[in-house]
Amino acid sequence: MKKVLLTGFEPFGGQVLNASWCAAQRLHHTVIDNATVIAAQLSCSFHKTHGELKQLISRHQPDVVLCLGQASNSSVIQVEKVALNYIDARIADNDGVQPIEQPIINDGPNAYFASVPVKRLVTAVQAHQIPVSLSYSAGTFVCNQLFYLLMHELTLHPQMIGGFIHVPACEQQRLLHQHPFMSTAQVVTALKIMIQRLQQPQDEVTQSLGTLY
Ligand code: PCA
């Protein structure tokens, strides 16, 4: 039996919901094929998320860690490839902290790649006609920091794999903030497909999902 730790964020930027947690919480304690999902909410805080994530990893000892965040300007699910060692926050986090042009870890590598098979996840979701893309930037805010710290942490746990997925705002947020949106039900379906795909044969995806610019 595999264990998947699925994290979502609390609301941030003055919003009352965060689509990432709306989706993640629906999968808490569900079993998808042979994987049990543990969902947990993280603070949208530059200072708190690392400790929260470390504690969850050491308590649950998951096989897979998938962290989710909300990308309010996006209408598609974005499977992130790259975490940068760089923060340049356009708004303050929920503690009022707004780092500008700072490394996440002094002398850490400039970037980490996700260790989940990102192309397989994207093509599996695409096959179900759910809007999804491979993304090469997780931004320069709390999500990018969490993704970077996750991949840094997993260097100490080589048996675990991890990645980060940005999801669009949910339907309730469209009414309040005019964001592009995707229903929570559709995001949950996409996450289930990805968790199933992680348990299936790891054959190569030979097509390019890259970008020209
Ligand atoms: N999205 C923000 C932080 C928390 C979240 O859900 C981001 O993309 O950095």
Automatic annotation (TrEMBL):
Key word Cytoplasm present: yes
Catalytic activity: Release of an N-terminal pyroglutamyl group from a polypeptide, the second amino acid generally not being Pro
Single annotated GO MF: pyroglutamyl-peptidase activity
Enzyme class: hydrolase
Gene3D superfamilies in the record: Peptidase C15, pyroglutamyl peptidase I-like
This protein's UniProt keywords: Cytoplasm, Hydrolase, Protease, Thiol protease
EC number: 3.4.19.3
Database matches in CDD domains: Peptidase_C15
Keyword Methyltransferase listed: no
Catalytic center residues: 143
Family from the record: Belongs to the peptidase C15 family.
UniProt protein name: Pyroglutamyl-peptidase I
Gene: pcp
